[in-house]
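Let us practice reading a record.
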Amino acid sequence: MSTDRLNELLPQHIRRRDAEGGGRLRALLAVIAEQVGLVEADIERLYENWFIETCDDWAVPYIGDLVGYRMLSGYTEALAAGGHREALSAAAGGTRPLAARLAPRRDVAATLAARRRKGTLALLEELAAAVAEWPARAVEFHRLLARDQNVRLYGGDADAVTGRAGRLAGLGYVNVRDGGGLALAGGPFDPFAHVPAASRITSPRRQGRYGPPAVGLFVWRLPPFSITHAPAYCVDRARNLFTFSILANDTRLVTRPVPEPSPDHIAEPENVPAFISRRTLRDRLADFYGPDKSFAIWRQGPGGPGGRPADPLPLSSIVVADLTDWAYRPRRDQVVVDPELGRIAFGARAVPRRGVWVTYHYAFPDALGGGEYLRDRRNAAAGGAGTRGATRIYQVGPGQEFERITDAYERWKADDADGDQRSAIIEITHSGSYQEQLEFVLDPGESLELRAAEGTRPTLRLLDWYSNRPDSLQIRGTDGTESPDGTDGTDGTDGTDGTEGHGAAPPRFTLDGLLITGRGISVTGPVGSVLIRHSTLVPGWSLEPHCEPVQPEEPSLVLEDTTACVRIERSVLGTILVIADEVRTDPLPIHIADSILDATGRDREALSAPECRHAHAVLHAHRTTVIGEVHTHAVAIGEDSIFDGRMNVARRGIGCLRFSSVPPGSRTPRRYHCQPDLAWAALAEQAERGEIDPEDLPRLRSMEAERVRPQFTGRRYGTPAYGQLAAGGPAELARGAEDGAELGAFHDLFQPQREDNLRARLTEFTPAGTDAGIVFVT
């Protein structure tokens, strides 16, 4: 409310007399108006709490109780304990608070409508989307059971055995000429008849599908992520061989889902983020190829002649084939695509003259690492305390002022020659590839952010520029006395000529939304902070075709003689190497949250000093997956994390590990509610009760430690399910976090809660007399 609102309601002569008397009445009314505004805001909030879409979190169970909505336990506790960290919006990477997973507003709002449609397959698919946000397809398995029938009922009609399954599906007839249909066997779109299975689909040990009362809900947990107008990688220039991935690795193409036409529609392959097979693409190429579809290919960059958008290759020139070992030879005017490997081969007449650019979709567990997804930038300001001048954005890309990152950096340093432009943002506006020698020299008080624009994922390819020194991305801080040419630039002054000298805050650097391959990042000198978020520093620098690292022992981040406080958020990177003077300097703080630290092997060093010595650093790990060994000075906190490698901490008296997984034999600070400690404690209790022989304890401890060891669907960066806990892995890790979610980098997906909520809804809304189960496709 405006402070003059009540004053404006008074007659004009009273306001005139009050103004002549010093405006004391107006001041009083301003105080009253402030309190009236609070009352009105509270009334508006009470009105909004009548509706599920706008109500506060505390009101959700009350509204749900009015319509008989059954909530999972733990909602109140989640509101009380998770507000400080889990209040992330959908734009902040696709995560939700735990309370929203336990009681999705969309599901509460659709309670009455769902009850009217109880027992329909389309409703089960909508439940998966509303409750767990998973695309799904519901299948009645009793319709796919082989059964005896009299073939003479069909009169010997030849059409009875044509098509995918034929009219005699119940008899088990299969059209062996239909390769596309055969490729669907055993999946969610299987059209063939099967022999009944004895095990039930709800069995916790061995899940059976094909039974008379079984209804299966096939769900896709890996969402699709797009790469738009990005350069392809040339594997062989002489033979015109390319890969969709800029890292030269094989990557499976994924369908870009299209909305279903009606609420009663059953999901088809184009409605779910399924992997595209060769036969499916061959039979339905027009449904997948195009600029607004699953993938497209261009012979030139994002802009055509005159700045007009270029057209992709015509549909008639695309041929689908198996490019394993690159054995297939395309014809002169053909462009061969292999969607299962993500490879492209051009014929002689289709040779690209201006490069190859592609748009495609890939699968990944969450919005993590470099990608085109929306990124949270609430704390992304490059300026801050100790800086002067407004933060200026220098845009790099086609049609922008700068074509190279180095040009933008040099312009900023020129603008900051007098100390008037202390903070800057270099923003890359497209998903292109940059091959530059990058070295950022930052003076005290300066702040630089190198980031990708929204909806883009640029790639920095750090090549082998020099033979006698490292070629990594250099971030070097100075003390304010060094000139750009590396000499002492004090010229007898006291450092107060605009450079802010020694009295200014140390410089800061931020990396946001980029993919870095070929080399790593090196930080040296007096740097205040280094923030890496939503970025990927490829573990092992580069990838082989089958996602094997090219340089598995090379570090992704080197901290050498620096004072930087390193923060890593929602990123993927390789080994961190710390080189520091352990006598004269304090340990470096390293904060890692919601990220994957991958040394490309559990027996390699993920965090250490040279020669596998203790890194002079203090580690803070929150919801992090570490693949490799950790050798560090101290661990201040490690929570909801997975350490898939031996940990060796020098100072065990400070810090703690809680709700984490640590291999046996590790030297750590005190642990609380960690694995395999809990499993061993359970064995000790059984031995005390006489349930097991104490002499068998060593053997049983070894077996339990192996059982609760982390199991991943994919361990190599570049594979679709990289870092995802395996479906058949130990439940102690899948539900071992403090709030019951999974340990590791994908904790905030809250997949156990989503699965429990979906199973509860299936029990409530499945057709009478049937068993409904969840089948994970990805």
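A brief commentary: The chain has a mean pLDDT of 84.
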